[in-house]
Amino acid sequence: MASDAKSAAAFRTIGEVAQATGLAPHILRYWESRFPQLRPVTRAGNRRYYRPEDVALVARIDRLLNREGYTIKGVQQLLAREPVAMPDPAPVVATPSLVAIRDLLAKALADD
User: Fold this and answer.
1) What is the CATH number of domain 2-86?
2) Residue-wise burial string across 15-36, b where 16 or more C-beta atoms lie within 10 A, e elsewhere
3) What DSSP string describes the chain?
4) What is the pLDDT of residues 45-94, one digit of tens each?
5) CA atoms in the 13 A half-sphere facing the CB of 71
6) What is d(CA 88, CA 13) in angstroms, rounded to the nearest whole number?
7) CB of 15 closer than 8 Å to CB of 21
8) What is the pTM of this model?
9) Where are the domains of the chain?
């Protein structure tokens, strides 16, 4: 199977996620409409690519619904109460001013 050869950080197609979890693709698409936290990357032709964190969320939703007996509304409320993990902001890089660049260029030309 192609997904077995992928690294843990690789994106998965809906078919690969369905096969790995034992869930039908139409269930995964339905869950995308019911759980705003589940948002796989979509590319041309609406192809879905699940990130590792999306696959983990699918497994968690499956466990809550199908093994622990939660309702869809119950899982929605449970997930909504959890803080949303925000990506780390990009580091602030000091950019030289135009005056500083001009001075560096003038010095370089003078030294030449």
Assistant:
1) 1.10.1660.10
2) ebbbebeebeeebbeebbeebe
3) -GGGGS-TTS-EEHHHHHHHHT--HHHHHHHHHH-TT---EEEGGGEEEE-HHHHHHHHHHHIIIIIS---HHHHHHHHHHSPPPPPPPPPP-----HHHHHHHHHHHHHH-
4) 889 999 999 999 999 999 999 999 999 999 999 999 987 665 556 666 66
5) 3
6) 26
7) no
8) 0.69
9) 2-86
